[in-house]
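Problem: given the chain below (134 residues), write out its structure.
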Amino acid sequence: MDDDYPLLGLFWTMLWFFLWIMWLFLLFKIVTDIFRDHELSGWAKAGWLILCLVLPFVGVLVYVIVRGMGMTQRETAHAEETEAAFQDYIRTSAAGSSSASGGGADELARLADLKEKGALTEEEFRKAKARLLA
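Solution.
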């Protein structure tokens, strides 16, 4: 049997494929980081993009060497902003639902107080309570 594609050839093909996929992930991460950085001017962003797209492997390598530490800081800051916005949303939602239920309880207490004072009859109190709880 003629072996046209030896095992070592398969290994090298898979290695290059894996490196190409890793480079694509890194390229997407770098493009995201370029647009996330508010300190870079538009020209600097365009320059980095051109470098990364025209000289892909060299551009990505240079970007990681020059701005790699900042990438981590910007990613961390973005994650903290997202978490803070999420926590604020939860607090706002919880406050809105608790105030709505607290408002209903206050209304019910006010109705009970009016009934005790004689301003409401038992039938009026039951109707108002049913309307409030519905």
